[in-house]
Every structure is written in C-alpha cells, then in structure tokens.
C-alpha cells in the first residue's frame, strides 16, 4: 500500500459537533482507501484509572433487568448498600445514571446500574426511589445540581437520602441548613474520583458492568477538570462513572438495613430477616 506523508497542518475555525467513530477494543477501521486508527486516551500517559486492574475485572451479565435497571447481584439482607446518582436534563445529551454498591463484600461489588438520556429529572427521582427499594431501601446520594427535581421527588416519596450539613451549628452560633444530595464541585470532584481510583488500584471494588468499565478505561486526567461547556459539543460523557464515584463516597455511611426484632416465649429477642 502506498504511504502518504502529511505535508502541512493548518488550524481552522469551526464550532459544532465533532463525531468520533469508535468501537470497543479495536480502534482501527477502514475508510475509502485508508486504514484509520484512533489514538486511545486510555493508552496515554494521562490515563486516570489502573488499566491492568480494569482489564482483570470480570464482566457480569445482569441476573435481572427491569426498565433499563440492570441488576448483577441479588439483594442480600444484612448487607450494606448505597447508590450514587448523576442527574441529567433528559434531552438526549448526557444521561441520568445510577450505580449501586454492596460494601459488605471484599472487594465491594457494583450490584446494579442504570442509564438513560431521555428520562426527565422528576421521573428519575421516581426511578431512584424504586431502585433503592430493590436493595433494602438503602442510602442514595443524588447529585445536587440544577436538576433538583430528582432530589425533591425522591424526598417526597420517602427515600433515604444522603444529607450534608445536617443542622450543624458553627462556633459563631450559625445553624447550617440541611442539604440533600451530593454536591459535586471542584473540590469534591477531585475527592470522589481519586477515592474511586485508589479503590480500583487497591482491588477494593469490582465494577462488573461492561459499560462502566469502559468509561473508566477512557477517563483521563483532563476529564477531572471542570469546564463550562455545552453538553451538545461533548462526544463522551462519564455519567455512570460519576454515579459510581459518588456511590463510593458512601462507603463509610452505608449501613445494613435493621432487621426486625421478634419476642419469643422465653423472653429472648432474635433478629430475623424478612
């Protein structure tokens, strides 16, 4: 095949959508007379998550799937679960995503995932409530952003929501208001992604979901930098990975569902799972 050399590179003014043709694993494809290769960001020095650890993770098939909610492992009474949730606008740009983690196993296990780029924020609040109930009514941490309808709906339904600044009083006597949901900002974003990265490196979590693992493989250091851009100009989103990073922050807050106590005839109390 005849080789062609690039003779000149010139910048051009363009504003619009940039399309990236990509398939999993093999990034080479054929065009009219040319073999083209996409440089993989996950093969560069800017990779964020440990590639070897990601490659070694098992990819599980859902044991059950309901309306896009993929469950890889069944609920186990007495285990500590928590869900992380990234909320989008529901207009086919980025996706609203859920990731649930079982923290009672070593390594911790991603037990369920969900992603939709068409669901409205309020309807997503309904979904999150339903999803959490499938794992014992566990703690759920919904991202606190401009789409607060999801949090409001889940709270209205009685979901067990993560809260920050829960009525604490400062040294000056100011009582801080209760804030529902996980606030992703420049500080917490670094905290949550570095925490998840350390968990992956140390083998403390198994992601299990093929799409979630692929997002982690594609995530680079540049992605952790906040940029105020139009989502329509972004070709790759990390919604499930963000939800997973939020869920991982719940590791010290997730508690097993309290089992009911039954009184026996000899006045002894026992706990029994239902």
Overview of this protein structure:
The chain is built from 6 helices and 13 strands. The chain has helices at residues 51-56, 121-133, 149-157, 186-201, 210-218, 239-248; strands at residues 28-30, 35-37, 64-66, 69-71, 81-86, 96-102, 108-116, 139-142, 163-164, 179-180, 205-206, 261-263, 269-271. Strands 3, 4, 5, 6, 7, 8 and 11 form a 7-stranded mixed β-sheet that branches. A two-stranded antiparallel sheet has the order 1-2. The protein is globular, with a radius of gyration of 22 Å. The termini are far apart.
Entry summary:
With 274 residues, the protein is of the alpha+beta class.
Main traits of this protein?
single chain, 274 residues, alpha+beta, Nucleotidyltransferase, domain 5, seven-stranded mixed sheet, two-stranded antiparallel sheet, globular
Helices and strands in order:
Elements: E1 28-30, E2 35-37, H1 51-56, E3 64-66, E4 69-71, E5 81-86, E6 96-102, E7 108-116, H2 121-133, E8 139-142, H3 149-157, E9 163-164, E10 179-180, H4 186-201, E11 205-206, H5 210-218, H6 239-248, E12 261-263, E13 269-271
Parallel strand pairs: 5-8, 7-11
Antiparallel strand pairs: 1-2, 3-4, 4-7, 5-6, 6-7, 9-10, 12-13
Helix pairs in contact: 2-3, 4-6
Secondary-structure element series: EEHEEEEEHEHEEHEHHEE
* CATH-defined topology: Nucleotidyltransferase, domain 5
Largest sheet: 7 strands, mixed
Mean pLDDT: 83
CATH class, named: Alpha Beta
Q: What structural category characterises the helix and strand content? A: alpha+beta
Give the overall shape, derived from the CA principal axes: globular
Q: What percentage of amino acids are in beta strands?
A: 15-25%
Which percent range fits the helix content?
A: 10-25%
What is the gyration radius calculated from CA atoms? 22 Å
> Spans of 5+ residues with little confidence (pLDDT < 50)?
230-235
Number of strands: 13
Question: What is the CATH architecture descriptor?
Answer: 2-Layer Sandwich
Q: Could you tell me how far the N terminus lies from the C terminus, measured between alpha carbons in angstroms?
A: 68 Å
How many helix segments? 6
Oligomer: single chain
Question: Into how many domains do the coordinates divide?
Answer: 1
């Amino acid at each position: 095949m005849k080789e062609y050399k690039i003779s000149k590179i010139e910048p051009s003014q363009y504003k619009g959508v940039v399309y990236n043709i990509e398939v999993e694993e093999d990034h080479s494809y054929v065009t009219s007379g040319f073999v083209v290769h996409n440089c993989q960001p996950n093969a560069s020095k800017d990779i964020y998550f440990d590639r070897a650890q990601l490659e070694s993770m098992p990819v599980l098939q859902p044991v059950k799937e309901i309306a896009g909610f993929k469950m890889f492992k069944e609920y186990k009474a007495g285990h500590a679960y928590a869900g992380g949730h990234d909320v989008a606008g529901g207009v086919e740009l980025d996706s609203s995503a859920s990731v649930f983690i079982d923290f009672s196993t070593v390594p911790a296990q991603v037990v369920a995932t969900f992603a939709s780029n068409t669901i409205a924020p309020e309807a997503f609040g309904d979904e999150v409530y339903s999803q959490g109930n499938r794992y014992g009514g566990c703690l759920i941490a919904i991202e606190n952003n401009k789409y607060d309808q999801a949090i409001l709906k889940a709270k209205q339904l009685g979901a067990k929501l993560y809260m920050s600044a829960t009525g604490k009083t400062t040294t000056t006597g100011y009582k801080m208001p209760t804030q529902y949901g996980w606030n992703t900002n420049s500080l917490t974003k670094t905290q949550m992604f570095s925490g998840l990265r350390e968990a992956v490196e140390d083998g403390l979590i198994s992601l299990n979901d093929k799409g979630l693992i692929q997002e982690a493989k594609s995530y680079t250091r540049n992605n952790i930098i906040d940029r105020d851009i139009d989502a329509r100009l972004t070709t790759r989103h990390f919604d499930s990975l963000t939800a997973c990073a939020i869920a991982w922050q719940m590791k010290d807050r997730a508690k097993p569902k309290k089992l009911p106590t039954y009184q026996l005839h000899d006045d002894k109390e026992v706990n029994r799972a239902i």
